[in-house]
């Protein structure tokens, strides 16, 4: 979600959605976060936060007497490893070498 943004910081996402923000004011930060959640749910046509999270591959945490299960994000895609260049056969190597005179 919001891959077009340079970051997912509260002030950047707030600006993207046109939400006014007095950054680092606890009440205003909470209000902006709630409005962002509503915008994201509307954008994705998921009208319940848990459905939005599930649709994006997240698992919500749960609290219970004596503990909790933590929030889980989807596994990150591993960066593609560069494949080593294939070694040329000795025939290809010999035919591609030009003598220097």
Structure write-up:
The structure is a single chain. The chain is mainly alpha-helical and 101 residues long. Helices cover 41% and strands 6% of the residues. It is built from 4 helices and 2 strands, in the order H-H-H-E-E-H. The chain has helices spanning 10-17, 26-44, 49-55, 90-96; strands spanning 62-64, 67-69. A two-stranded antiparallel ribbon has the order 1-2. Strand 1 and strand 2 form a beta hairpin. The longest helix is centred in the middle third of the chain and has 19 residues, at 26-44. It is extended, with a radius of gyration of 25 Å.
Gyration radius, rounded: 25 Å
Average pLDDT metric: 86
> Count of DSSP E strands?
2
Query: Order of strands side by side in the largest beta sheet?
Result: 1-2
| Poorly predicted runs of 5 or more residues | none
Order of helices and strands: HHHEEH
Q: Which class of secondary structure composition applies to the elements?
A: mainly alpha
Task: Report how far apart the termini are.
Answer: 61 Å
- The fraction of residues in strands falls at 5-15%
Which percent bin holds the helix content?
A: 40-55%
Give the topology, please.
Blueprint: H1 10-17, H2 26-44, H3 49-55, E1 62-64, E2 67-69, H4 90-96
Helix pairs in contact: 1-2
Concise description?
With 101 residues, the protein is mostly helical.
């Amino acid at each position: 979600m919001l891959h077009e943004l340079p970051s997912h910081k509260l002030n950047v996402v707030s600006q993207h959605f046109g939400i006014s923000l007095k950054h680092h004011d606890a009440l205003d930060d909470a209000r902006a976060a709630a409005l962002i959640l509503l915008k994201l749910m509307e954008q994705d046509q998921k009208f319940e936060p848990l459905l939005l999270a599930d649709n994006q591959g997240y698992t919500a945490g749960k609290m219970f007497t004596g503990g909790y299960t933590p929030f889980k994000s989807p596994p990150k895609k591993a960066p593609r490893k560069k494949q080593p260049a294939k070694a040329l056969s000795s025939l290809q190597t010999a035919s591609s070498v030009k003598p220097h005179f």
